[in-house]
Amino acid sequence: MSRRQISLALLLAVSALASTGCVGISSGLNAGIFGIPIPVSPYFQKLEEDQHHVHDRYARVPILGPVTAGGAPVALDPPSDDEVMRAFEKANPIQGGLPFFHEVQINNVRIVKDKIADYMDPPRFYPLVGPAQLHHAHYKCTIYYSKITHVGWPLPHTLSDEAEMEVIYIDHNHLHIVGNVDTGPGAPF
Q1: Gap between the Cα atoms of 35 and 26, Å rounded
Q2: Quick one: 79 exposed, middle or buried, by C-beta within 10 A (0-12, 13-18, 19+)?
Q3: Is the pLDDT of residue 168 over 90?
Q4: Could you tell me which residues come within 8 angstroms of residue 29 by beta carbon, excluding any fewer than 6 positions away?
């Protein structure tokens, strides 16, 4: 091939690349090389989505009003089934098996939640909150399930256990404001 043919082929390749999809030279913003989409593994995408879900729903401590006089403080709602299963999956990773080589299935899940402790700490000062009491609630969550493991190599076989059990402990903590919580006009700061 001559130099002229090589340069013509190179020019055609560059123009074909520049005129495809979101990489092309077009009207509007052009991000150049940064406009090319980068593939992300579904594993890492799900990992980020799960971290956001847990942070958004379960990782924050709610701040409630003061405890009323004469009544025993009662903890918030017990852990949801979603929270229990996420804690279970964190302790026992069952996702990401290798298809046709090693796969695990969890079926017939039953969750039993028992409150094992419910108490309050004495009042103290918390930065960015002020004077408050920390309310503790501890739950014992027992998960009953059946587990089926499919092994495909070196000899294909299936292992089945109908009576599996796992115990997960979940703590629910929240704050109760102490003292005057009136923040209207004229309230002391």
Answers
A1: 12
A2: buried
A3: yes
A4: none
Q: Which two tokens stand for residue 73?
A: 């403080």
* Contact in structure between 113 and 141 (CB atoms under 8 Å): yes
Residue the block writes with tokens 């909150």: 129
pLDDT: which is higher, 167 or 96: 167
Q: Do 96 and 43 meet the contact criterion of CB atoms below 8 Å apart?
A: yes
The SS3 of residue 44 is helix
DSSP state of 181: -
pTM: 0.69
What HEC string does 53-96 produce? HHHHHCCCCCEECCCCCCCCCCCCCCCCHHHHHHHHHHHCCCCC
| Spatial distance between the Cα atoms of 79 and 114, rounded to a whole number of angstroms | 10
Which of 174, 175, 169 shows the shortest CA–CA distance to 116? 169
Report, in angstroms and rounded to the nearest whole number, the Rg of the chain calculated over CA atoms: 29
Q: What is the mean pLDDT of residues 111-120?
A: 94
Q: Report in angstroms the alpha-carbon separations of 81 from 37, 92, 109, 147.
A: 37, 16, 10, 18
Distances (CA, A) of 126 to 86, 118, 131: 29, 21, 6
Is the Cα torsion angle 50, 51, 56, 62 positive or negative in sign? positive
Buried b (16+ CB within 10 A) or exposed e, 115-136: eeeeeeeeeeeeeeeeebbbbe
